[in-house]
């Protein structure tokens, strides 16, 4: 990955007016720049200094706090200066321009974090979690991102990787020295070691999937006719934590997507009420999008008026819901039909009887939704993860499973273990292609 050691600068604080704004510079030999901006020389690292900030004509632009971090004990691992000014966009931009005229380059999105990664301050997974933390939309997501940033997820991956490396050495050695006695002893240990790895990686796959839910939300499709109570249901399941009940997707004929938070876990609710048979070309495009969204669903709620039962239109849409998607039949308006709130499982179908209007059966439904995606409670200790991590983890698990089947065939075993190791290494960035890094960091905001 190309890494030029030039000095980069950016406004690190958010856009808009604020009490305080921060400019961050990273690179080497920053003293001349610091002196030009603040008049200060030979700064003591990690000490906050109150000072004036000047422009090229030595006029005072602002006064504030300056902190210098010497390498490698800084965020990026390089020398870093932070200028804390008043949070005026105009002041910040004047200072930024001056820094650029002093030879700094305006940083690209994520460039500070990329340097931190390239200098070994963070692994790739931790670097990604910084962006996830900044963009977190629920408390649980933010807490999960902090856990990943602090290395909890990486720790599990590294622990498994260490076992894999150890086992690979064992297997490769048995391949190189195929003495029968050694092989016999080795084989016994191989199976044992594989078992340990398998027992560790399977639960990690589950928590990774939950980590992705925390990051992206649980995709939930609601199938239900107009007036069956979808909006009412959304409002009551989101409860007082509502925080966000916004439309994500755009145009009128497009799918309607809403994000709600249940017990701290984000759910993306897709309303499919618009799907019906049509000859209208534009409407067809909208319907295709809805069908695509359905194909990516994790859960499907079939919302039914408990007086009329499931409708023919619902059955039509249900055909598009993939088999692996968890389906929940929710019977609404029980206050009108005289049912009592309850959950019943009949012929492997889960039925939940509720009244959205009278808030009956809602706790049961909320709990069921969380259970379905494997969450016991929001207080559960979870780290955040990305689809990229989940895919790599699935790849690793499948190679471990194959390794297990062929554990007596050393050559196949060696190959499968190598694949599993590579897949896990991709998560932390131990093995990663330049284009992947480019893609990951370009999605950051500038100044991070
Ligand atoms: P949507 O079109 O599927 O989003 O349905 P709405 O949530 O807008 O509800 C349609 C109507 O049904 C509204 O007048 C709601 O107050 C009413 N409604 C929703 N849930 C219930 C319920 O459990 N009992 C009763 N009696 N009315 C309900
Ligand atoms: Zn509605």
Automatic annotation (TrEMBL):
Binding-site residues, Mg(2+): 231, 252
One Pfam assignment: MnmE_helical
An example Gene Ontology biological process: tRNA wobble uridine modification
Binding site for (6S)-5-formyl-5,6,7,8-tetrahydrofolate: 24, 82, 121, 448
Highest taxon, organism lineage: Bacteria
Binding annotation for K(+): 227, 246, 248, 251
EC numbers: 3.6.-.-
Localisation: Cytoplasm
Cofactor note text: Binds 1 potassium ion per subunit.
Tagged with keyword Hydrolase: yes
Entry cofactors: K(+)
UniProt: GTP binding residues: 227-232, 246-252, 271-274
InterPro entries listed in its UniProt record: G_TrmE, GTP-bd, GTP-bd_TrmE_N, GTPase_MnmE, MnmE_dom2, MnmE_helical, P-loop_NTPase, Small_GTP-bd
Cellular component GO terms, alphabetical: cytosol
Molecular functions per Gene Ontology: GTP binding; GTPase activity; metal ion binding
Domain TrmE-type G intervals: 217-374
Coiled-coil segments on the chain, per record: none
Keywords attached to this entry: Cytoplasm, GTP-binding, Hydrolase, Magnesium, Metal-binding, Nucleotide-binding, Potassium, tRNA processing
Gene3D superfamilies, per database record: P-loop containing nucleotide triphosphate hydrolases, Probable tRNA modification gtpase trme, domain 1, tRNA modification GTPase MnmE domain 2
Subunit structure: Homodimer. Heterotetramer of two MnmE and two MnmG subunits.
HAMAP family tied to this protein: GTPase_MnmE
Record family assignment: Belongs to the TRAFAC class TrmE-Era-EngA-EngB-Septin-like GTPase superfamily. TrmE GTPase family.
Function: Exhibits a very high intrinsic GTPase hydrolysis rate. Involved in the addition of a carboxymethylaminomethyl (cmnm) group at the wobble position (U34) of certain tRNAs, forming tRNA-cmnm(5)s(2)U34.
Protein name in the entry: tRNA modification GTPase MnmE
């Amino acid at each position: 990955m190309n890494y030029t050691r030039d000095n980069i600068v950016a406004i690190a604080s958010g856009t808009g007016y604020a009490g305080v704004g921060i400019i961050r510079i990273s690179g080497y030999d920053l003293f001349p720049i610091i002196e030009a901006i603040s008049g200060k020389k030979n700064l003591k690292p990690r000490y906050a200094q109150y000072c004036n900030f000047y422009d090229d004509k030595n006029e005072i632009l602002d006064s504030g706090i300056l902190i210098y971090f010497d390498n490698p004990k800084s965020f990026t691992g390089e020398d870093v200066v932070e200028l804390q000014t008043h949070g005026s966009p105009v002041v910040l931009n004047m200072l930024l321009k001056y820094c650029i005229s002093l030879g700094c380059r305006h940083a690209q999105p994520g460039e500070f974090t990329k340097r931190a990664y390239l200098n070994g301050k963070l692994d790739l997974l931790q670097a990604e979690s910084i962006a996830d933390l900044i963009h977190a939309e629920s408390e649980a997501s933010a807490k999960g991102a902090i856990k990943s940033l602090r290395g909890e997820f990486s720790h599990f991956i590294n622990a498994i990787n260490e076992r894999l490396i150890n086992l690979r050495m064992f297997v490769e050695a048995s391949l190189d020295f195929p003495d029968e006695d050694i092989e016999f002893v080795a084989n016994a240990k191989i199976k044992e070691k594989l078992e340990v790895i398998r027992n560790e990686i399977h639960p990690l796959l589950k928590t990774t999937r939950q980590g992705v839910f925390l990051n992206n939300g649980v995709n939930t499709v609601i199938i239900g006719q107009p007036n069956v109570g979808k909006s009412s249901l959304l409002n009551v399941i989101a409860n007082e934590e509502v925080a966000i009940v916004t439309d994500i997707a755009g145009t009128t004929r497009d799918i309607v997507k809403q994000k709600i938070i249940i017990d701290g876990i984000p759910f993306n609710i897709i309303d499919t009420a618009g799907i019906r048979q049509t000859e209208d070309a534009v409407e067809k495009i909208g319907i295709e999008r809805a069908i695509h969204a359905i194909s990516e669903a994790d859960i499907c709620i079939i919302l039914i008026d408990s007086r009329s039962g499931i409708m023919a239109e619902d059955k039509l849409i249900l055909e598009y819901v993939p088999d692996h998607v968890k389906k929940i039949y929710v019977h609404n308006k029980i206050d009108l039909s005289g049912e009592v709130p309850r959950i019943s499982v009949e012929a492997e179908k889960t039925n939940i009887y509720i009244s959205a209007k009278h808030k009956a059966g809602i706790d049961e439904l909320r709990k069921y939704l969380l259970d379905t995606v494997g969450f016991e409670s929001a207080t559960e200790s979870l780290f955040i993860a990305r689809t990229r991590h989940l895919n790599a983890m699935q790849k690793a698990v499948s190679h471990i499973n194959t390794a297990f089947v062929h554990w007596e065939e050393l050559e196949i075993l060696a190959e499968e273990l190598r694949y599993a190791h590579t897949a896990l290494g991709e998560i932390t960035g131990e093995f990663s292609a330049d284009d992947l890094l480019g893609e990951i960091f370009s999605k950051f905001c500038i100044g991070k």
